Structure formats: structure tokens, C-alpha cells
């Protein structure tokens, strides 16, 4: 079956409305920001967020940045604080991402945060990004719109070169003015620089009147997706289980008897969307978790990556 072609949209109100409709249906739409083109999905829709990882061929569930129209919208999803107010007043809208603790009742898919209890939020300054966010009227999870491991896209042509046929649409608004990803600051404690980016760390330090703990190296951004703060259940996890042993709960995949099933039909996108939620639910039983084998291709690799971390021996 031939792959559907990606729709090329412009920046007229009708195009942004079309893009917002596609996003509302759980489809993926690439859009320009001042930093790079983002690959957007409704951050509240786990299946849509899972499709981001599938389209990018991302080998692991790294946490994603959630884009919103303004600071008021950001405050619906995170526990705000005074430092965030000062930074938002100075640098939003713009290429600054703030990592803050999730707020009760936030509604963001755990796949967007990779199961972390914090959320990275950003208010882009780009006119078309703003227009899309207002038309969509909801939070958009968006990594850079490139296949995993490739260079970030700063034109719609770059996006199509990597993702044509794998995403519903791309909004073409020329070159991204910043062309470098946003600066990421963790504000869930003493402010830390997680990734150098479009706003100079010095400008942030000058505003806050304090120096920031630096990322591990100026060229290697710290990658929270790889850190131990990643989600792991309290319970013991046993992989490649065909059946549950006495006392265990069984997390299934495909057509089988089990306590919860990642995807009865064997669909890896659905399984990815269900992964963190199902693990949380089984963990709440307080019983050890046995997990059925999941095919190790496509999103299955990312699922297995997370499952291996969950099952790894810990202190
Ligand atoms: O400029 C940008 O930030 C672009 C445009 C599209 O907005 N987006 C972007 O996304 O660069 P991405 O997926 O390439 O980078 C997201 C990074 C993650 O790798 C991680 O380092 C950090 O954001 N991140 C996301 N959520 C986090 C969290 N809860 N805690 C710590 N870091 C987080
Ligand atoms: Mg990227």
C-alpha cells in the first residue's frame, strides 16, 4: 500500500484551522517555531504522542517539551513558582523551556513526560506556532521534526526530506529564525541548566543573580531520558513471561489471557500509549509484575528499552 503523502500547509487562518483539526484527530503536524520545526501531537492523547516516537524512529521514550500559547496556559499543567514568573516575564514567548513539577489533574499523557513527575513547558514566539496553538487551543507535545539521529529541521523541506508520508501535515513558514533548540532549565529545586540553547545561560544568570549548574558538557546536552529518575515501578518486574507465576500480575501483549493487555490486537503504537499507565495500574496492586514478550522492532524497541530499565536490578 503506498504511504499517504504529507499535506503541505501554509500560514493562512484556514491552513492553521486545518492543522488544528488534524491534531484534534490525534494526527501529527510539523510546525515552525523560532528554534526548529517541531513535530506536534496533542499532549493529552497517548496514542498521538506514541505516534511521534514511531514517526521519528526514536529508540527510547525521552521526555518531550509541551508547547502552550502563554504562561497562563503553562500554569494549568505545572506547579508554578516565583522564579518561573521572573523567567517567563523576561523570556516568554521565546526559546526557553522550563521544567517544573506536574500539577494535580494535569491531563498530560505520561508518554509525553516519559513517566517523570516533571513537565518541560515552552511558549514559542513564532507567529505561526502561536497561531496554531491558539487554533488548537490545547497543549502540543513536540520534539524536533526529524528522524531520530538526524539533524534538526529548520525548513519545511528538511521536515519533508525526513518524514514525508509519515506525518499528516507540515506548516511551511520558511526558515526558523533561531535554528537552535531552546535552552532548558530545571526549576524543580535550585535552577539547573539541562540544555544550552536559544537563550544564553548568561542572560538567565544575570536575571536571576545567581549562576546555574552547568550541563555535563557544553556539546553533550544532559539527557534526562537516560537518567535514573526515569520511571520504574516499586514492584519486581519479570520479562518475557508466557504466564503468571503464583502471586504475580501479568501484563500481556497480543491475544492472550492476562490481567492487563498493552494491545490485544498486537499494535505497538497502542502498546506504547498504554505502557506507563498499565505499569502504574499493576504496580498499585503491590504484586510482582510479569510482562509478556513484546516484538523488538519499531516502537517495540522503545517499549523493551523501558521494560528493561523497569526490570533492571536496583538498590
Ligand atoms: O527548541 C526546542 O526546544 C524544540 C522545538 C520544537 O520547540 N524542541 C526540542 O525537543 O528540542 P527535543 O525533544 O529535541 O528535546 C526535548 C528535551 C529532552 O531530550 C530532554 O532533554 C528535555 O527536553 N526534557 C523534556 N522533558 C523533560 C523533563 N520532564 N525533565 C527534564 N528534561 C526534559
Ligand atoms: Mg531533537
Automatic annotation (TrEMBL):
<feature type="binding site">
    <location>
        <position position="62"/>
    </location>
    <ligand>
        <name>ATP</name>
    </ligand>
</feature>
<dbReference type="InterPro" id="IPR050156">
    <property type="entry name" value="TC-AMP_synthase_SUA5"/>
</dbReference>
<feature type="binding site">
    <location>
        <position position="152"/>
    </location>
    <ligand>
        <name>ATP</name>
    </ligand>
</feature>
<feature type="binding site">
    <location>
        <position position="231"/>
    </location>
    <ligand>
        <name>ATP</name>
    </ligand>
</feature>
<keyword id="KW-0547">Nucleotide-binding</keyword>
<keyword id="KW-0963">Cytoplasm</keyword>
<feature type="binding site">
    <location>
        <position position="182"/>
    </location>
    <ligand>
        <name>L-threonine</name>
    </ligand>
</feature>
<dbReference type="GO" id="GO:0005737">
    <property type="term" value="C:cytoplasm"/>
</dbReference>
<keyword id="KW-0067">ATP-binding</keyword>
<dbReference type="GO" id="GO:0000049">
    <property type="term" value="F:tRNA binding"/>
</dbReference>
<dbReference type="InterPro" id="IPR006070">
    <property type="entry name" value="Sua5-like_dom"/>
</dbReference>
<dbReference type="InterPro" id="IPR005145">
    <property type="entry name" value="Sua5_C"/>
</dbReference>
<dbReference type="Pfam" id="PF01300">
    <property type="entry name" value="Sua5_yciO_yrdC"/>
</dbReference>
<keyword id="KW-0819">tRNA processing</keyword>
<dbReference type="GO" id="GO:0061710">
    <property type="term" value="F:L-threonylcarbamoyladenylate synthase"/>
</dbReference>
<feature type="domain" description="YrdC-like">
    <location>
        <begin position="13"/>
        <end position="199"/>
    </location>
</feature>
<dbReference type="GO" id="GO:0005524">
    <property type="term" value="F:ATP binding"/>
</dbReference>
<dbReference type="GO" id="GO:0003725">
    <property type="term" value="F:double-stranded RNA binding"/>
</dbReference>
<dbReference type="InterPro" id="IPR010923">
    <property type="entry name" value="T(6)A37_SUA5"/>
</dbReference>
<feature type="binding site">
    <location>
        <position position="122"/>
    </location>
    <ligand>
        <name>L-threonine</name>
    </ligand>
</feature>
<comment type="function">
    <text>Required for the formation of a threonylcarbamoyl group on adenosine at position 37 (t(6)A37) in tRNAs that read codons beginning with adenine.</text>
</comment>
<dbReference type="GO" id="GO:0006450">
    <property type="term" value="P:regulation of translational fidelity"/>
</dbReference>
<keyword id="KW-0548">Nucleotidyltransferase</keyword>
<feature type="binding site">
    <location>
        <position position="118"/>
    </location>
    <ligand>
        <name>ATP</name>
    </ligand>
</feature>
<feature type="binding site">
    <location>
        <position position="195"/>
    </location>
    <ligand>
        <name>ATP</name>
    </ligand>
</feature>
<dbReference type="InterPro" id="IPR038385">
    <property type="entry name" value="Sua5/YwlC_C"/>
</dbReference>
<dbReference type="Pfam" id="PF03481">
    <property type="entry name" value="Sua5_C"/>
</dbReference>
<feature type="binding site">
    <location>
        <position position="35"/>
    </location>
    <ligand>
        <name>L-threonine</name>
    </ligand>
</feature>
<feature type="binding site">
    <location>
        <position position="67"/>
    </location>
    <ligand>
        <name>L-threonine</name>
    </ligand>
</feature>
<feature type="binding site">
    <location>
        <position position="144"/>
    </location>
    <ligand>
        <name>ATP</name>
    </ligand>
</feature>
<feature type="binding site">
    <location>
        <position position="142"/>
    </location>
    <ligand>
        <name>L-threonine</name>
    </ligand>
</feature>
<feature type="binding site">
    <location>
        <position position="58"/>
    </location>
    <ligand>
        <name>ATP</name>
    </ligand>
</feature>
<comment type="similarity">
    <text>Belongs to the SUA5 family.</text>
</comment>
<dbReference type="InterPro" id="IPR017945">
    <property type="entry name" value="DHBP_synth_RibB-like_a/b_dom"/>
</dbReference>
<dbReference type="GO" id="GO:0008033">
    <property type="term" value="P:tRNA processing"/>
</dbReference>
<keyword id="KW-0808">Transferase</keyword>
<protein>
    <recommendedName>
        <fullName>Threonylcarbamoyl-AMP synthase</fullName>
        <ecNumber>2.7.7.87</ecNumber>
    </recommendedName>
</protein>
